[in-house]
Amino acid sequence: MNPDYFSKESIKNRMFKRAAELWEIRNIDHLDPIIKLMIESLASEIFQLSGEVNNMENRILEKVARFLTPSSLLSARPAHAIMHARAIYDSCDLSVDQAFHYKNAHFMKRHNLKRLSFTPVYTARVVNGDVAYLLGADGCWAMDSRLSKDLVARCTQTDPVTNGCLWIGLDLAPEIKTLKDISFYFDFPYIEHKEDYYRLLPHVKWHLGEHELAFKNGFFLCDEDAADYASRLLEKYNANNQVNSDILNIYNHRFMHVVDDETLSEKHRSLFPKELSHLFSQEALDGFDKPLVWLKASFPAGFSAEALQGLTININAFPVANKYIHKSERKVDEISGVIPLIKEANEYFLGIDSVSDMHGNDYHEQKYGIDNKDVDQHIYSLRRGGCERFNSANAREYLDRLIDLLRDESMAFTNVEKDTLGENASDLLKQLNHLENKINLSGINSESISYIIFNDTFYEATSFFVTYWLSNGVIGNGIKASELLGFTDMSDVDRSSSVLLTTSRGGKEAPDSRGMLEMYKLALTSHGAIYSKQDVKSFCAIHCGDLVSDISVQSGYAVSKQPGEGIIRTIDVCLKPSTSMNNTKLSEIKEDLLVALHANSPQEFNYQLIIQQN
Predict the structure, then answer these.
(1) What is the per-residue pLDDT across 5-27, written as a single tens digit (0 to 9) for each?
(2) Which of 51, 37, 47 shows the shortest CA–CA distance to 8?
(3) Rounded to two decimals, what is the model's pTM?
(4) How far are the Cα atoms of 166, 249, 251, 563 from residue 197, in angstroms, in the given order?
(5) Could you tell me which of 500, 476, 502 has the C-alpha nearest to residue 587?
(6) Secondary structure (3-state) at 221
(7) Among the listed residues 577, 567, 522, the one whose alpha carbon sits nearest the alpha carbon of residue 544
(8) How does pLDDT run across 348-380, given as a tens digit for each residue?
(9) Number of C-alpha atoms within 13 angstroms, CB side, residue 514?
(10) Which 8-state DSSP code applies to residue 275?
(11) 97 in a structural domain
(12) Does residue 18 sit in the same domain as residue 141?
């Protein structure tokens, strides 16, 4: 509809025209001035009313989008990174609730934080060992205590045997008898188009001495207890599982793990690879005084010499997310079966981990009750922001309105009977200022409090134990690589080895109304999958947000990086960065967006990201 149709002038003109027709007046200037004034006032009110109707339609659409969009998409997103930790004994498994704490006092004070922790996004297995050396055509690099590469020796001559190859020296404890299930993490910190090299990792050939090792793409996932059918069917709707799955998709292709069960023996441990000893000086060879397990990695032709020189390889690496478990014990009564999920300033609610009562009964969210009478009795509902109200107003908003009303009314009595009402009005203003200050302090965290609501017809316990996941959102971004996360409750982990290998990134606030509508549109039309160009555009708009000002999608072609492929069809995604986009954010957006597009698209879709300069 034409927006000018509901402008103030058009409404007034239509009313004048209708009045002139009713009274058979040819010229509206002949109308009585009082009538004209009344019509103008009425037109102004109708114009305001039309604006309210439009706002009401937008609010209804936003509320529908909020209720029908999966709850996992509406919460804040935690920052994520790659972390390294070494086992004290032969090996240990790190569960998803094992927290590694960041204790930078200046950082914590600046952001008003009480805790900032990282937890693994899957059960990760670490061993008592590390990568000690990397050998290549340019020389030998040693890994320091913060797992950075230092060039310790250069080759004195060249040899074709080193072309496209790297030798990895593993310093493993004698108790480790096999390399099976050990994951290797690859990183190209100084290469721009690193995604092209990650997709070539499955074509790398590995050798342990004369034996060719079998590797598999991705990290090794420890076997976990099989869940019941209902839990496995609906676990993808859990917000925490969604976060873990998304982070796994980002980093999975950067890992390779050993599936070969070759037993390590003394013949597999040596001071230095014999085939490379003639390339280094005797002084350099004398520096290798500890037997190591040497693996040879032969890379495909798509790896340039620059890429191999900048490549770093580590074991005992795993993805972590800035989220942690918070435990709470609450009592409920027969009047109100509601438990608020309390959090501190700059903390964001992610999802429920478990709910139980003092009698040992486990409670499940309402959607898990599938043909199970016991489960039907022990259920709860989760409400995000607002608890059993007909509107979205909360107590803080009511107090704000009350303060405004009291402040306006108190002004009316300041000059009346100063001996009595004036003194009371002055005290009232002081109390209002004090209350307003408290409200402003409590409103530092803009996210509304979530609640658990129990079944009104059944709960026999008075005390409930609730554990839920919290995150610090965008504050968790930007923690630099090599930062120590050595504060942990685990006794099986070497705390001095607990460091970040990459800078944390990816933390986001909860989506605004615009982002919520985009998520609702994608969830409604394609259920999160990508099949059409419009799906690609909507997905990119959700992923990039305000960092991109324009998105266009078109067909194209490119030369494939995969061996044995030639020219392939591509989907070219053109992004125009906004003014707030810097080079670091642009690089992160390109990496994560490309991985997310491949994860949600058919396998035959090939994408190219094109950045349009402003």
Answers:
(1) 667 788 888 888 888 888 877 77
(2) 47
(3) 0.79
(4) 15, 16, 13, 12
(5) 502
(6) coil
(7) 577
(8) 888 888 888 888 888 877 764 445 555 556 788
(9) 6
(10) G
(11) no
(12) no
Per DSSP, the three-state class of 287 is coil
Residue whose C-alpha is closest to residue 294's, from 188, 206, 181: 206
- List of E strands, 91-187: 91-94, 100-101, 117-120, 124-127, 129-135, 139-143, 149-154, 165-172, 183-187
- From 315, 349, 372, the end of a domain falls on 315
- Retrieve residue 611's tokens: 């950045």
- Could you tell me the pLDDT band of residue 323, with boundaries at 50, 70 and 90? very high
Instruction: Note whether residue 531 is domain-resident.
Output: yes
Residues 309 and 387 in one domain: no
Residues 141 and 268 occupy one common structural domain: yes
Q: Name the residue among 87, 133, 141 with its Cα closest to residue 295.
A: 133
Query: How many folded domains does the chain comprise?
Result: 5
Alpha-carbon gap, residue 322 to 596, rounded angstroms:
20
Query: 465: which 2 tokens?
Result: 């134990």
- My answer on whether 337 and 461 are in the same domain is yes
* Cβ-proximal residues to 420 (8 Å cutoff; 6+ apart), any chain: none
Determine the Cα–Cα distance for residues 64 and 60; give it in Å rounded to an integer: 6
Same domain, 524 and 464: no
- Distance separating alpha carbons of residues 613 and 586, to the nearest angstrom: 12
The answer to whether the CB of 351 falls within 8 A of the CB of 221 is: no
* Same domain? 459 vs 558: no
Range of the domain at 344: 323-392+448-471
What number of other Cβ atoms are within 10 A of residue 488's Cβ? Answer: 18
**Alpha-carbon span 544 to 525, nearest angstrom:** 20
